[in-house]
Design brief:
Elements (H helix, E strand, L loop, with lengths): L1 E5 L4 H10 L4 E3 L11 H11 L3 E4 L6 H5 L4 H22 L2 E7 L24 H16 L3 E6 L2 E2 L6 H10 L6 E5 L3 E2 L2 E2 H13 L4 E4 L6 E2 H12 L4 E5 L19 H5 L8 H22 L4
Parallel strand pairs: 1-2, 1-3, 3-4, 4-5, 5-10, 6-9, 7-12
Antiparallel strand pairs: 8-11
Length: 299
């Protein structure tokens, strides 16, 4: 089976390439070869490559960048028109589309630990969340065969994420001895490598429709940071603050907990407890990530 992987250099994309290449032929053109915002490039590559599955991990994911009005055109092109182009081309060439979506499509008003289910009403609070909601609509309306996979609180060895942000605060140029961390926002820290394995299982099972795929269990951002601090023996004081105190451009939902209900119903849920996966991740990559933070860079 040929899988066209878009966004293969990002956090999730790089792990998908590693996992899926063990069993499938992975086609991962760079942006110059296939820019998803260009209909002509999408249709040309689809015609020549003939993939059976298109996995779209390409997106602008920085919530605050997406909130900036000067970025609205680019965000719309990449996060909405790109998936629409892929879906329309996939309909023409009879292949499955897998679109990665986000917990940010919900408003987070449910009281934690009540989770969000696949069929709950979408009501995003941010420009990023709205763009992911519209990308879902674009795929549903244009792709006869599709999967939409919602996830959240991703971390991994590549790209930017909460783990790296915390380590950067501790070991970076500013070397903060006290770091503010939100105590009233809840979610499920999810390892991108585990999600890649779940995506592979969904491909094997020929999944259809919308799925939630996050780690099992939940925690607050503060508990997330405390776990990292303890595991890596960080010499830093964590200063609890509320979500309302955290002045960010984009509004964040307080409850980001997703329930993998359909994965469980279909007997294909591979997602592990967040503590077990985070412990394994930090065991494998913690030292290297600290070195990166001290060097002032990310992979």
């Amino acid at each position: 089976m040929k899988i066209l992987l878009l966004g293969s250099k990002g956090m999730l994309g790089s792990d998908c390439r590693e996992v899926l290449s063990q069993n499938y032929e992975i086609l991962s053109p760079d942006r110059k070869e296939l820019d998803i915002v260009s209909w002509d490039k999408v249709i040309d590559r689809m015609h020549h490559l003939h993939p059976e599955v298109v996995l779209n991990c390409a997106a602008i994911t920085d919530l605050d960048v997406c909130e900036e009005s000067r970025q609205s055109y680019t965000v719309r092109k990449v996060n909405i028109e790109g998936p629409r182009n892929i879906a329309q081309a996939s309909a023409r060439y009879d292949c499955k589309v897998i679109q990665i979506s986000s917990d940010q499509v919900f408003n987070g008003e449910k009281a934690a630990p009540q989770p969000y289910f696949e069929d709950d009403t979408l009501d995003p609070l941010s420009a990023y969340g709205r763009s992911k909601m519209e990308s879902e609509t674009a795929v549903r309306e244009n792709a006869p065969d599709y999967m939409i996979i919602r996830t959240g609180w991703l971390y991994g060895a590549e790209g930017d994420n909460f783990v790296k942000s915390l380590l950067s605060s501790v070991f970076g140029k500013k070397k903060s001895k006290k770091v503010k961390v939100v105590e009233d926002q809840f979610g499920s820290p999810t390892w991108s490598y585990r999600l890649a394995q779940q995506i592979q299982e969904l491909i094997r099972a020929d999944g259809k429709g919308t799925y939630h795929a996050t780690a099992e269990g939940y925690c607050s951002r503060l508990e997330y940071a405390e776990f990292i601090k303890k595991k890596l023996r960080l010499k830093v004081s964590l200063d609890p603050c509320s979500l309302s105190e955290c002045r960010r451009k984009a509004k964040r939902p307080a409850n980001c907990i997703l329930e993998n209900r359909i994965l469980k119903k279909q007997g294909i849920n591979l997602m592990e407890d967040w503590k077990e996966d985070l412990d394994l991740f930090l065991e494998r990559f913690g030292d290297d990530l600290i070195k990166q933070a001290k060097a002032g860079g990310t992979k």
